[in-house]
Design brief:
The chain has helices spanning 13-27, 36-61, 81-90, 104-112, 127-134, 167-174, 205-213, 235-243, 246-253, 255-295, 300-350, 360-365, 389-393, 409-412, 415-434, 442-453; strands at residues 70-75, 96-99, 118-121, 140-155, 164-166, 196-200, 230-232, 354-359, 370-372, 374-376, 400-408. It is an alpha/beta fold. Keywords: Signal.
């Protein structure tokens, strides 16, 4: 770890804040007409502040002492932490990192009890958890190392009547027992187009994320999804269900030409049938003339001419039939090509109502083929957030999650904790890309590195910033413009 200036001690930051508040209340000049009651109230506020500050100091001193050379982490699995702990331990550092996976609730409780240094989570600290930390003089610092999101998408350059879905509408489309079979059932504006759903199987990270985020299923499985949910072993399978195959697109585009070819082949065959029929008639006439010549006892040369006419007529009929067989084969081939193009167009048309979900990293690779829905939260105004690097990183996009490391200034002042977090942040960008997550900008990583290394004082989490629900609160940034 690089050398950095010694931090000022901040373990009792909450205490100083309370004391300052009490002193301010005591030093304010009474308004005109104030009585001794006001002075008594200010004195009580000051005494209460002193008592609370003393209580917090005592609670802080009672926290367990951390083990030197050991960094303790608790929280959830499925983030970057396991891989980064392994990489850190292979780096040659003498620091030992101990990781538990007891869940976010237990981890935040332990953080505020002074028992762990870092909480590994996909949600921010809740207001009651932040209050618990502050009540023992612990200031909370939140670091973000990556983000993740699922994108709900239909085929690009198609339309089902709307571009924005609420999280509850997405849930209604996919949940077990869903009655939704057409897009028009989702509300006014959507077209009366059959709706069919698909997505990855349970081994895919997107399945687990989608199940927890959209379906409120702690341990997602297929029983949480509608019975006609199409599962695919690969993201490619889900994508092809939504967008169709490129070959079908190419064939569908050929349908007009194939139709003209079919009509021409049929017309030529019809004309050839007339040629055959005319040839048959000539053969019959020629044979009749031979018979008539015999009956009439025509001269020998005339009867010979009649017989020669039969030969020519039969040769013409054979040639006409041969040409008919060729044209029939050609017509059959053209019709087969037409039928293939028509079937391809039908498959392409059926994809109009197909919808799937994908990790954002996979969607980015095929954004020319996929048309994502903007997503809005069910509460508050309809904001319709477009999935993008920015809206996902900020947590503004509702179907996203931020991967967070939450610590305290008390732990940050420990060299071993700072060393581990610096190593983690240095690798966070590449690690996120390798894990198919959304990486932070280098500027954001550098800003957090300044906190960890002591070059800048960290931004402390405040009650105003703490989310009011289990999910991280969206950043107050303007919505990404719709495409």
């Amino acid at each position: 770890m690089s050398n950095h200036p010694v931090r000022r001690t901040r373990a009792a930051g909450a205490v100083l804040a309370l004391a300052a508040l009490a002193l301010t209340a005591c030093s304010e000049e009474p308004t005109q007409g104030a009585t001794d009651v006001v002075a008594d109230a200010q004195a009580r506020d000051y005494r209460d502040g002193q008592v609370e500050a003393q209580r917090v100091r005592q609670a802080n001193r009672a926290l367990p002492s951390p083990t030197s050379g050991v960094v303790t982490i608790d929280g959830v699995d499925g983030t970057l932490t396991s891989e980064e702990v392994t990489a850190f331990q292979r780096s040659g550092s003498s620091v030992d990192v101990e990781v538990s996976r007891r869940g976010e609730d237990a981890a935040f409780a332990s953080l505020c009890d002074g028992e762990v240094d870092v909480v590994d989570s996909t949600r921010a600290v809740a207001p009651e958890e932040l209050e618990a930390c502050r009540s023992v003089g612990l200031d909370v610092v939140q670091l973000q190392v990556a983000s993740d999101a699922v994108v709900v998408a239909i085929k690009n350059e198609t339309d089902v009547g709307g571009d924005c879905l609420g999280t509850q509408q997405v849930r209604e489309v996919y949940r077990a027992g869903s009655p939704v079979t057409t897009w028009s059932q989702l509300g006014d504006g959507y077209d009366d187009v059959p709706l069919e759903v698909a997505g990855p199987n349970r081994e895919n990270n997107a399945f687990q994320f989608f199940g927890r985020t959209v379906l409120d299923a702690p341990a997602p499985s297929l029983i949480n999804l509608r019975s006609d949910y199409r599962t695919f072993d690969t993201d490619q399978g889900s994508r092809l269900f939504v967008v169709g195959r490129e070959r079908d697109e190419d064939l569908a585009l050929q349908l007009r030409d194939r139709s003209r070819e079919r009509d021409l082949a049929k017309s030529r065959l019809t004309e050839q049938w007339q040629v055959v029929n005319d040839a048959k008639a000539e053969v019959e006439v020629a044979h009749a003339e031979v018979e008539k010549g015999v009956r009439d006892q025509r001269p020998a040369d005339q009867q010979a001419a009649d017989r020669q006419r039969v030969v020519r007529a039969e040769e013409a009929l054979a040639a006409a039939r041969s040409e008919m067989f060729v044209l029939t084969d050609e017509k059959n081939a053209v019709v087969a090509r037409y039928d293939a193009a028509a079937a391809a167009r039908a498959r392409v048309q059926r994809t109009r109502g197909h919808v799937g979900y994908f990790l954002f990293s996979y969607y980015e690779l095929f954004e020319d083929q996929l048309r994502p829905f903007e997503i809005t939260d069910p509460d508050g105004e309809r904001n319709c957030i477009f999935p993008s690097q920015r809206t996902i990183t900020s947590g503004e996009y509702p179907l996203s999650r931020r991967m967070l490391l939450t610590t305290t200034t008390r732990s940050l002042d420990r060299p071993e904790v700072a060393e581990f977090l610096e190593h983690f942040l240095d690798r966070a960008g590449d690690a996120a890309v390798d894990a198919q997550l959304v990486a932070l900008s280098q500027a954001e990583i550098d800003r957090q590195l300044d906190w960890v290394t002591g070059r800048e004082e960290p931004d402390l989490v405040t009650l105003e910033e703490a989310p009011q629900t289990e999910q991280a609160a969206p950043a107050t940034q303007p919505a990404e413009p719709a495409r």
